[in-house]
Design goal:
By secondary structure, the chain is an alpha/beta fold. It contains 12 helices and 18 strands. The strands form 4 sheets. Strands 1, 2, 3, 4, 5, 16, 17 and 18 form an 8-stranded mixed sheet that branches. Strands 9-10-11-14-15 form a 5-stranded parallel sheet.
């Protein structure tokens, strides 16, 4: 099998702060064979050579929290109405379309945190078999929630301990990649309360343990601090949103609880969805709703988490209102502005750290032996994140899915 040699002005490998100048990345099959900082000797250059002048090579990005079945309409009500009234075929078509749009936006992997029935798994498998083009999907099926609880309209309702156990078993039988639970209510579902826990500590522990017993990780949606101690005690791998809110506009960060999160190597997902993009979406500031009014307090608390050393990913929650999956980079720019993160800190959060958080050791970093998931962008994204909007090429598992021939 002849190697493919890819060169550019720079390469950022997913880990450090600096870029390598004039790298040579060698791909053989679906794997990275080597990454060199000097031209290879003629006897090792038997394959095709592709050079991208003025560009940077970096790992394919990973969005650790999306909803492929959702349509990113302006209101929650419109999204819920569409999901609940559509046919299975229409839902699967949207899932497939969003997965393809994600790939062309530089996302080589997405983790779906809540869909309908086993539709996401079906699309995931068709992509893996090469029947559809799209980002790799890591799927939870439907999230476990209560009657009238957050996202109950996705279809997996369980109230008692035994019902939750049965729901988790059902998802595992439907070949999910991880388990997801709504530990609190959510903003999107009017019949739920984000300030209230939906399950007790024993039930949450059982979900996480069932995941571990099946060699799968687990994720918990947390929109207020009321559920956070139990989620941490259960050792969920990822804490989605990880909101420390104790009253409508008051957040209380707890250093001791943060230390437990760090000691257990848990990861939090920082949500840069449509509402968080207020600096770039003027319509957000006209909504006058609680999730917008408390953004300053929310971001201040998230900065405390970062400063404490909690490991984090940055995700989009794509599919929710004002958050189409192809605008992932806008969320990264919002994180830079609102959380005072550097471009390289943000890039690590959506490559190497994201891969580690959702237990995908074969990607997220450009090094020998890793899967050849990479993107090529104009300019230097370690200095300017808008470069990520200028994608020249996308490779997943050694195959080009978007390629603009260098001039």
């Amino acid at each position: 099998m002849n190697p493919l040699l890819i060169t550019a002005d720079r390469l950022w490998d997913g880990t450090g702060n600096a870029t390598r100048v004039r790298p040579v990345l060698q791909v053989v099959g679906d794997r990275i064979d080597s990454v060199e900082t000097a031209l290879l000797s003629p006897k090792t250059c038997s394959g095709e050579v592709v050079d991208f002048p003025g560009c940077t090579i970096l790992p394919g990005m990973i969005d650790t929290h999306v909803h492929l079945v959702m349509s990113a309409q302006p209101t929650n009500e419109a999204i819920i109405d569409q999901v609940t009234r559509e046919s299975d075929a229409e839902r699967m078509a949207r899932i497939a379309g969003n997965a393809e749009a994600a790939l062309h936006a530089g996302l080589t992997t997405v983790r779906d945190c809540g869909g309908t029935k086993n539709h996401v798994q079906q699309v995931r498998d068709r992509i893996r078999r090469g029947e559809l083009v799209g980002a790799d999907i890591v799927a939870c099926g439907s999230p476990i929630t209560t009657t009238l609880g957050h996202c109950h309209w996705l279809g997996l309702v369980a109230d008692t301990y035994d019902e939750v156990e049965a729901a988790a078993s059902k998802m595992l039988a439907e070949d999910v990649d991880f388990l997801k639970v709504m530990a609190t209510g959510g903003n999107m579902t009017a019949t739920s309360d984000p300030m209230k826990a939906q399950y007790d500590a024993r039930t949450l522990h059982r979900i996480a343990q069932m995941g571990r017993d099946a060699s799968k990780h687990s994720a918990a949606h947390v929109l207020s601090r009321v559920a956070l101690p139990a989620v941490v005690a259960a050792n969920f791998r990822t804490i989605e949103h990880c909101d420390w809110r104790v009253e409508e506009f008051r957040y209380e960060f707890d250093p001791e609880l943060a230390k437990k999160i760090i000691d257990q190597n848990q990861f939090v997902g920082l949500t840069m969805s449509g509402l968080a993009r207020r600096a770039f979406l003027p319509e957000v500031n006209t909504l006058g709703i609680g999730p917008v009014k408390r953004l300053d307090a929310r971001f201040a608390c998230e900065r405390q988490m970062i400063d404490a050393g909690i490991r984090y990913t940055i995700h989009s929650d794509a599919g929710v209102r004002l958050c189409p999956i192809e605008r992932f980079v806008l969320g990264l720019r919002a994180a830079e502005r609102e959380l005072k993160l550097t471009p390289t800190e943000i890039l690590r959060a959506v490559t190497a750290t994201a891969a580690e958080a959702i237990e995908l050791p074969d990607r997220g970093v450009l090094s020998a032996g890793k899967r050849a998931d990479l993107i090529v962008v104009e300019g230097d994204p370690t200095r300017d994140l808008t470069c990520l909007e200028k994608i020249r090429a996308v490779m997943k598992a050694g195959v080009w899915y978007h390629f603009e021939k260098p001039s």
